[in-house]
Amino acid sequence: MPNISRNRAFVIAAAAAVLVVLAWLAWPDPVPVDLAPASRMSMEVTVDEEARTRVHHVYTVSAPLTGTVLRPEREVGDPVTANQTVVAVMKPTAPSFHDPRLHQELMSALSAADAAVTLAEAERRRIEATVNLSNIQLRRMQTLAGEGAVARSALDRAVADAQTNQAALASATAELQVRRNERDGAAVRLQNPTDSVATSSDPGCCIQIRAPVTGDVLKLIQESEAVVLAGTPLIEIGNPQDLEIVAELLSTDAVQVRQGQSVHIDGWGGPPIQGRVRRIEPAGFLKVSALGIEEQRVRTIIDFTDPPQRWRTLGHDYRVIVHVVIWRRNNVLTVPVGALFRVNDKWAVFRDEDGRARSAIIVMGHRNNRVAEVLFGLTQGDQVVLHASDRVSDGARIAQRD
After folding, report:
1. Tens digit of each residue's pLDDT, the chain (402 residues)
2. Which of these, 24, 30, 27, lies nearest to 396 by C-alpha position?
3. What phi, psi does 19 have (nearest 5°)?
4. 100-147 and 152-189 helices cross at what angle (nearest 10)?
5. Does domain 47-55+240-328 have CATH number 3.30.200.20?
6. What is the phi/psi pair of residue 177, to 5°?
7. Burial 204-217 (b: 16+ CB within 10 A, else e)
8. Is 1 helix (H, G, I), strand (E, B) or coil?
9. Is residue 92 within 8 Å of 197, Cβ to Cβ?
10. Is 43 exposed, middle or buried (0-12, 13-18, 19+ CB in 10 A)?
11. Residue 392 in contact with residue 398, Cβ under 8 Å?
């Protein structure tokens, strides 16, 4: 009997050991997670957007009249001085080609002008002969009047005739000059592009356009010689040190931005720099994004507050990233946004309580792309689970990932 009892006790002990081993093997391992503490810190909420720099005052030099603009001698980046540096040179355009019908009409007009000149010359010669005759008669009358052989009235008529004929000669001379000018005009209209025209080598042929302000050449709009109309833009000039930033914010973000708010500027290849909102334009505009989405945008103008030495390598139309600070507070209890998840219409986190995950409903305040403000639900130092997977549930065993 003692041996049977001893064997039974051994079997029971062995079975219990096997059950313990099986239970231990079947017991789930803790879920490895990343933990982060709820901590107090200074927090900012920003509106982030790509933006570009631009010269505050850009002057566009345009063609003052229709003509041929020569190839510019200036290049982008060249300095110019107001009212001294020549930035563009224009010359008259060459005559255009004539179609056969127009050419025949111009030839006929030239022939008619030649005939009119011939007629005016003949008329002038006729009147000139009349003037000579009236002058001879006037001298004869003056001689006879001196001898008392003719009446005074006859002498007066001779004087009037001479003066009338002299005025007619002056009129005929002017008429002849008019006809000659008309003939020259008709001949010029027959000029074709192969005829000699004024060139840039002639200092009196061209118009020199000078820089309106002192600065640098920002853009050559017309780089080659071409015929342009009056008002055609030719070149852009500005001071590259007079920079500002233009950010096209979504209208839903722009309503939160106020004049004078601080701006962090980065993403331009240099150290972060500071700025300030100067103006939010009162009118928006429609812009289609790269994905084809129509967005209502508002231009926001930002000035640099850091000294120019920190951003002097920036130029006109450079890309930057702006972060407009719309809210800021010190000593705020925060958790990383990666710890947040939704429970119905509320926000929640998994809190580490003695190695087990416990869901905690929180009241969230402001949030940025890194952390969220916690108003209620957590205390400083609470460890929360970051990016909880589907293996983490309320009450699940968790352990800090190595």
Report:
1. 555 666 677 777 777 776 766 655 555 678 899 999 999 999 999 999 999 999 999 999 999 999 899 999 899 999 999 999 999 999 888 777 778 888 888 888 889 989 999 998 999 899 888 888 888 888 888 887 777 777 778 877 888 888 898 898 899 899 999 999 988 888 888 777 665 544 444 545 788 999 999 999 999 999 999 999 999 999 999 998 899 999 999 999 999 999 999 999 999 999 999 999 999 999 999 999 888 999 999 999 999 999 999 998 999 999 999 999 999 999 999 999 999 999 988 999 999 998 899 999 999 999 999 999 999 999 999 999 999 888 888 888 888 887
2. 30
3. -60, -40
4. 160
5. no
6. -65, -40
7. eebeebebeeebbb
8. coil
9. yes
10. buried
11. yes
Q: Which two tokens stand for residue 16?
A: 């219990």
- Return the ∠ at Cα 14 (arms to 11 and 20), rounded to 5°: 140
**Secondary structure (DSSP) of 203-246:** TTT-EEEEPSSSEEEEEES--S-EEE-TT-EEEEEE-TTSEEEE
Residue 228 zone, left/alpha/beta (φ > 0; ψ -120 to 50; rest) = beta
**Joined tokens for residue 89:** 């040179």
Q: What is the pLDDT of residue 99?
A: 80
Q: What CATH class does 59-93+206-238 carry?
A: mainly beta
Angle, vertex CA 45, rays to CA 247 and CA 345, nearest 5: 115
Per-domain residue ranges for the chain? 31-42+330-400, 47-55+240-328, 59-93+206-238, 100-189
Q: For residue 63, what is the DSSP state?
A: -
Measured distance CA(334)–CA(375) in Å, rounded: 9
The predicted pLDDT at position 318 comes to: 94
Terminal Cα-to-Cα distance of the chain (whole angstroms): 56
Distance CA 227, CA 67 (A): 6
What fold is seen in the domain 31-42+330-400?
A: 2.40.420
Closest CA to 317 of 245, 235, 239, 241: 245
